[in-house]
Every structure is written in structure tokens, then in C-alpha cells.
Specification:
By secondary structure, the chain is an alpha+beta fold. The protein has 9 helices and 15 strands.
């Protein structure tokens, strides 16, 4: 069943590259019977299995309070909360069985309400009963027996530097994978500058680069941009003021060239951004101001 599930997810993820809708995930059929992969509250163990098959994190809008505090640490490891606080709850026993058997699971990370990014295979590698949570490794299971940690901090002391580095890279890739679909959905798959509406030609641009402070992969730090405007923004040819008005660098405005320069760049000067409908998804003015100062310095 697990191998068949991964094949199903390979197929639907190839079609829905910016997030798989809930009903498409749940279209999985095994041995002629439908098997739901996403359920409430988030831990799925079909009746024919003894160990959990899938886990998911509940979608929470930016700034909202999450019902479960599933979170990634700076080491790139997911801490996945128990169902409640009873260690013998059926869902928690199913997770524990998956950990002890080294059974691979699929993890569904929300990019919008009812839309998920599927990450698989993942493994439950440790349990912390004091914190009511499991440690999820987004890769091959660690060597040695599964067990219980008294402190999650001790996990780092068990891991090699190379393994921690790999986990940080995995976390970075995950953030980037979910950043694009979240931003494009907020901007209705249109460039915030020119309104181009072809998703394959769009990027999710960071206002503050992810390597800098406040460069988190969250929608208020993102702008949907076509590839030429993204490149121009990164090169400080285009700047965006805190009031969300576009400026083009003066030397570029003075150039005389073909229609791409005139219509693609120069005519953007003084235009207002196309903004998400939801206020919480709109670009953060403080981040825009910080980035705009960088543009002014370059100009």
C-alpha cells in the first residue's frame, strides 16, 4: 500500500506542481478500494495497517493560531505533535508503531486551504513524551534503534555535522517549494507588475532575500513576478516603494532600445502593484522599505 501510495503521489504531483487539491490526494485506490490519505485531525491509519500511513499539518492563514504546534527547527527536522496528550491514544500508538517499524510515511504540508505539498517518504525517528511529539526526518531513517529522547536538544549530539547540514538543506528546499505555490495563489497566478497570467512564466520573488534577516518564506515577503521583472528586481533595475508603486532606475528610463525595454520595463515606472485580495497576504511595507533603500543605493 505504501509503495502504491507513493506512485499515486508521483503522478498527481506531476500534474499539480503548485499544490495538490485535497480531493485529488484522496483519489487514491488500492486493491480496487478507495483509500483516503488525508483525514481529520491529521493522522491516517487505514484499518488493514498496524502503523500510520500519512500525517499532515493543518492549514493556518498567516498570523493565525495553529491548532497543533507542528514546527520545523533550525536543524530542518519536523516536530509532529501527538493527538492530544494520551500516549495510548490509537493515533499515537499508530505513529509509535510506524517509528518502531521504520515504516515510510507521506507528509502533507498545506500551501492553501485544502491544497497540499506532498513530501515522501518521511520517517518517524524519535519520540519525546514530555513534549507530546515525534521527530520526523525528511529522508532516510537514522542508524540505530528508535527510542525516546528526554530532550530534543540531545538529537544534535547524536547526529553528524554532515547529517545536520543535509537536514538544513532539506528545510530550505521545503520552504522554497511551498513558498512559490503560496505566493502564486495569493496573487491569482499573475505578475504583480505586468499582470501576466501564465504560471509557468512566473516566479515567487522574495522582497528580502532568504539569506538575510526577515527573509522568511512567507507570503508578505513575496511578490509574484514574471521572470523578466523578477530578474530586473533582483538586479535593482526596478524598485518598489513602501506605498507599492514601481520605480525604474533613471539610467534605464533614459535608454533607447526596442519594444521590450519600452513596454516591459520603462512603462512600469509609476505604476501600482497588483495586490492580493487578502490584506494579510499583501506585501509588508516595512520589508518593502528596507528593500527600496537597497534599490536607491544602487541607483
Amino acid at each position: 500500500m505504501r509503495l502504491a501510495m507513493f506512485t499515486h503521489l508521483d503522478r498527481v504531483a506531476a500534474v499539480h506542481q503548485d499544490g495538490i487539491p485535497h480531493d485529488v490526494v484522496n483519489s487514491f485506490v488500492f486493491d480496487g478500494e478507495p483509500v483516503r490519505l488525508i483525514v481529520q485531525p491529521g493522522i491516517r491509519k487505514p484499518g488493514r495497517l498496524s502503523a500510520a500511513l500519512t500525517i499532515r499539518t493543518t492549514y493556518t492563514p498567516h498570523g493565525g493560531e495553529r491548532p497543533y504546534a507542528d514546527e520545523f527547527g533550525s536543524d530542518g527536522i519536523l516536530r509532529y505533535k501527538w493527538r492530544g496528550t494520551d500516549p495510548e491514544h490509537a493515533d499515537n500508538r499508530a505513529l509509535r508503531e510506524a517509528m518502531l517499524r521504520r515504516a515510510p510515511l507521506a507528509y502533507f504540508y498545506p500551501v492553501a486551504r485544502g491544497v497540499y505539498h506532498a513530501i515522501y517518504p518521511v520517517y518517524l525517528v524519535e519520540e519525546n513524551r514530555q513534549r507530546h511529539e515525534f521527530v520526523v526526518d525528511l529522508g532516510e531513517p537514522a542508524d540505530g534503534p528508535a527510542g525516546t529522547l528526554n530532550s530534543l536538544d540531545s538529537l544534535d549530539s547524536l547526529d553528524s555535522l554532515e547529517r545536520r547540514y543535509t537536514r538544513r538543506l532539506t528545510l530550505h528546499r521545503l520552504h522554497q517549494m511551498v513558498f512559490r505555490p503560496m505566493v502564486l495563489r495569493a496573487y491569482e497566478a499573475r505578475c504583480a507588475l505586468c499582470r501576466l497570467g501564465h504560471a509557468p512564466l512566473l516566479d515567487a520573488a522574495h522582497i528580502i532575500p532568504d539569506r538575510q534577516d526577515r527573509g522568511e518564506p512567507v507570503v508578505p515577503n513575496g511578490l509574484a513576478m514574471c521572470k523578466i521583472h523578477h530578474a530586473a528586481y533582483d538586479a535593482n533595475i526596478i524598485g518598489i516603494r513602501p506605498d507599492r508603486v514601481v520605480e525604474v532606475r533613471q539610467d534605464i528610463l533614459a535608454e533607447i532600445d526596442g519594444p521590450m525595454l519600452r513596454h516591459g520595463l520603462q512603462e512600469m515606472h509609476g505604476s501600482a502593484l497588483f495586490l492580493p485580495r487578502s490584506r494579510r497576504d499583501q506585501p509588508d511595507p516595512t520589508r518593502l522599505e528596507q528593500r527600496y533603500e537597497q534599490f536607491r543605493s544602487a541607483a
